[in-house]
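Model it.
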Amino acid sequence: MVDATPDMSHTEQSTFILRYLTCDECGKYLIQERFLSFIDDSKKTGADISEMILKFLSDSHIPFEDCRGQGYDNGSNMSEISQLKSLTAKTKVDVAAAIKYVSSFECILMAAFWFKLLNSIDQRNQVIQAQSSTVDIEVKNIEDLETELQSLKKKWHLIYDEAKVVAVAMNIDPVFRVTRKGKRKSFFDDSDSDDDKVSGEDSLIQTDEHRFKKEVFFKVIDTVCERLNKRYQAIFQINKLFGFLWSYLDMTDEVIVNDSKNFSTEYSKDISSDKLTEEILYLENIHKANLDDNSLSPLLLLNKITKLKLQDLFPNICIALRIFLTLPVTVASAERSFSKLKLIKNHLRSTMGQERLSSLSLLSIESDLARKIDFDDLIECFAARKARKGVFL
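Modeled.
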């Protein structure tokens, strides 16, 4: 995983995070995400960034051919914004309008609605950003989130009543602001509708709760769900490509054969198509007797196979599962490294060198490994490198 951010001295720092599997003493696979280094790189084009990544992997003796997934984040060039020294007449009008809106019932209603929506997103986000999270977990959480957001439409009256209680407590009239309704020019052959029959003040004022519910509440939920589907479309495709590896109990043999062939085509360098199909069908037959009655998650399935010493029977399945488990779900680990970057290279250490920055960051971020270092060996190694006395015979 690679991401970038400017540090205190406005130097673009690219962080490198490696996601891989380890096997503990009990033979159990664990997902690891480790910080490698910060690289000073101010280049922005895709070709330059690719060259920088390949060079770093080569210098770190990490074969690029063994890498099977990449994590990235959307980036944008940030431009400096000059601070306004004085408010213009138009700005004063905008500020007054903002203050008026904040003191309105619509603002309270929007705050109550967005709190419910963002709280649901945040709960799923915390699960997805966990280090042990995998793509299938992400897909399930996104699908559950979309279902939960759609169920918010049925809770409109609860949110509306809650906003009214808050408005009364803040001494704000719990009614919608009066807005003028646009009048459409009528012609002699127009039919009379219910809206046209309304006359007088009701034809000029639109304070209907239904308008806000339809034009704002429903529209926001539909837009968020649409953006979720669009943003995570690639994740859904990846999960579909790997899904047969652990969902074979719910599939027919024909679907399993077809999916295994598609997967083998995508990962032809790692998997044998014919052998993978045979292994999946064989695993399906012995699943209930040796594993469990229900489908297992990818990590649990891999650990079950390893625990039963069945790796030699299902080598291609184990390889495929290990590839899937190393695919990054989010770049949360990269974002966490930026938090350490700001603590280490602050305004008092703005001239810190790149090597020192990376070394201190490595000790801080990977402190669990640093605490296991044998300092006696470390001191002897340091003394041997720094010793200036020669040995004379």
